[in-house]
Design brief:
By secondary structure, the chain is an all-alpha fold. Helix content is about 80%, strand content about 0%. It has one domain.
């Protein structure tokens, strides 16, 4: 990669376009990862809640029947 000062206007435009495209791809990856983690957290917490209620029922908790 050349130094910015030694690039022609066309090369600068190409480089800028590439940088913008890379930034958008990274943002999309981060957004997808965050969405996946949020969904995983929701599923995990609902499974934990189900396990807690089962445990309470198995122990004989009167209010949980």
């Amino acid at each position: 990669m050349k130094a910015w000062e030694s690039m022609t206007n066309a090369e600068r435009a190409e480089q800028t376009f590439r940088d913008i495209k890379l930034r958008q791809e990274r943002r999309l990856e981060i957004r997808k990862r965050a969405e996946y983690e949020a969904n995983s957290f929701t599923v995990e917490s609902s499974l934990k809640a189900i396990a807690r209620t089962r445990g309470a029922k198995n122990r004989g908790c009167r209010s949980c029947r």
